[in-house]
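Lay summary. Proteins are chains of building blocks that fold into shapes, and those shapes determine what they do. In this project we predict the shape from the chain. Here is one chain we studied, written as its sequence of building blocks.
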Amino acid sequence: MTVDAPAARSLRSVQPSLVRSIWSLLANVRFALAMILLLVLLTFLGTAISQVPPPMRQNPLLVERWLLAMERQYGPLTPILDRTGAFNVFEAPAYRALLALLTVSVAACTLRRAPAIWRNIFITTPQRRPAYYASSPLHARTEIGPMSVHVAVRATRFALEAHGYRTVLDEDKPNPTIYADRYRFFRLATFVNHLGLIMILGGGTMTGLLGQRDDGLVVPVGSSRPVGLDTPYVVRVDSFSDEYHLGGAARDYRSEVAIIDGNREVARATIRVNEPLTIGPVRLHQAYFGQAIVVDVARNGRSIFRDAVPLAYTALPYGFRPVGFFELPTENLAIDLVAPDPASEDVPAGQIAVFGYPLRSSDAIFTGVLSQREPQRWRDLEFTFLRETQFTGLQAVRDPGAPVFFVAAALMLGGILAVLYFPHRRVYALIDSDAGTATLWLAGHAARDPNFEDEFRSIVARTSRELMAAEAGS
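And here is the predicted shape, written in a compact code that computers can read:
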């Protein structure tokens, strides 16, 4: 196939034009604001619509039971909300993609501003028209008198440099100008601040795409559970302690844990709220604690389930009382254990309610109340409430973006402090001799700096003293 020359040029121009269009869109501040507003809207939806509780997210059984309970609140909309990710907004791919796009947009906006900031730092712009000085909010004017222009220039530069200003003299024309500035390199702090923002957004994106988190690592005392998060570790809780102030508020609670890798204990530590245990790429935080029930289920005298069941969750059908779950797959049963209700005499303190459901069903096929050490039968199954114990709730986090957040926070704080305390201050000076009598004009500029006016007045006063001293000396 042959393509004529105009058509070939047209084809070659498509790609650069497309790149420019994409760049213009990403570097558009309105586009970045639109994404921020969209993120705010999604965040509002994630707050207004019930979200899958963090402790349940890693357990498909608990998620399924939670969705069944939500049907009472959202009715036929429940499957739609589930498929669209409305019940898990902050973990949804769309939310993470929007966060990544905002990161790129902020970076593009920063790069687009870079040339202008660079010019303000390294390129001087002398002002030669007296009209500029007369219209400036901060300006001063004084007649030099008979002294030479060279002496006036030297006195003005000395006054400016005495205040810490860098001066650049332009004598190419009959009316010389002086450009003076201070803290010019601190304008680069804008880039530092933006870099911190970009790193925070990037760290959030990295955490969303590569990070893992399990807020529901619930381990009864004396039991072991896999840490998960693509690690081979198993955590065993040997003991749990909680202490309280006289007023009833918790003073301290801590877990004594051991980390097992295969058949080998690799770590042992005390975990508190602000004292996590780091093992490999995972951090384990103490998050919460509560009651657990040790239950035995036997069939024909043979135990088929014996473990501590943490009452670590709440469920709408039970009036948000503490609930624990376990499955008996061989019996096609899901069992709920529900804590006593202080407002009712149906399940008094020291007992536990038990509900049996077919797997993937919300219709109970049997209910009962278990007293400690008193077996209850259903068909050929015998349920026994053996004793009470405690569980500890751990938060397992594998977050590759965490170090990025710390660096980003330091950069943003440093950038903000630099911009606030060291704003770029500029002073322009012009010696105008066109009207026959030489006149010195001074004008100052510093954006968002309420203290600059006092400094400019001091510069004007110092310049007047230097001019008077130069005149007396001449």
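What the prediction tells us: The longest helix spans residues 93-122.
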